[in-house]
Design a protein that fits this description.
Length: 173
């Protein structure tokens, strides 16, 4: 089940965010960066973001919350991709159970409802499982950029969908 997040979900989302982020990026980002990311650090941000106000949306999967997606307007002025999937995270033990597809479909649906009918997502170049996931959903490689975050030399790759309607069909299938 996917639903819109409420303010009451902030703690659960922060737990998912921290656990998934640390598991996902271990070995891909420097250890001090990994060690510095935790529940206590992310909770205030989620308390501030929820409930999300359109055109931003936060959707959660399962009960108790096992994953979330955060989306809204594209942030860098890409003329062809007006929406952006800012983040999608699932508890490590709940991956590969269909929740990611459901969350992407719901995020794309929320974007389309805000008249943002194209979308992109940024993913670490070395995060091959995530890249395969987006490619499976029909994401098209767009470009790369340096992450430029906390002194890392990591690179992000953008995948895009010209039509989120097609993405919703692919993801929900």
């Amino acid at each position: 089940m996917v639903r819109d997040a409420t303010a009451e979900d902030a703690e659960a989302i922060a737990r998912v965010h921290a656990a998934s982020w640390r598991a996902t990026y271990a070995g891909l980002l420097p250890e001090p960066v990994i060690a510095g990311f935790n529940y206590e650090r992310t909770l205030p941000r989620w308390r501030e973001r929820l409930p999300a106000r359109a055109p931003q949306a936060v959707v959660v999967w399962d009960d108790p919350v096992a994953g979330y997606a955060y989306s809204g307007p594209e942030r860098e002025g890409d003329a062809e991709h007006r929406g952006e999937l800012y983040a999608i995270y699932l508890l490590p033990e709940r991956r590969r159970q269909g929740g990611g597809r459901l969350l992407v479909a719901a995020a794309a649906e929320r974007l389309a409802a805000a008249d943002l009918k194209s979308m992109l997502v940024w993913v670490l170049r070395e995060n091959l499982p995530a890249r395969r996931f987006y490619e499976t959903l029909g994401g098209v490689y767009l470009r790369e950029k340096p992450l430029g975050w906390r002194g890392t030399d990591a690179v992000e790759v953008a995948y895009g969908w010209a039509d989120t309607g097609a993405l919703r069909t692919t993801a929900a299938g």
